[in-house]
Specification:
The chain is mainly alpha-helical. It has five helices and two strands, in the order βαααβαα. A two-stranded antiparallel sheet has the order 1-2. α2 packs across α3 and α2 packs across α4. The radius of gyration is 10 Å and the shape is globular.
Length: 68
């Protein structure tokens, strides 16, 4: 299993918008750096654990955010 994951930027940004969260707010809520949120918004790979923290903060599963 790969240690990194790439999220679907459209799904990710749509979920942030649905919850009216800024990148700064989400990074604080998830306990990750702003750089991680930026990477996810650009569909750049992030650590699987980082994606898990962000998904938990959004109340969704990592699979909901993954690229198909």
């Amino acid at each position: 299993m790969s240690k990194s994951i790439t999220v679907d930027r459209v799904k990710f940004i749509a979920e942030m918008a649905r919850q009216n969260l800024t990148a700064e707010e989400l990074s604080q809520k998830a306990g990750v750096g702003r750089q991680a949120i930026w990477k996810m918004r650009q569909s750049k790979p992030v650590w699987r654990t980082t994606a898990g923290h962000v998904a938990n903060a959004l109340g969704v599963s990592v699979d909901d955010l993954k690229e198909d």
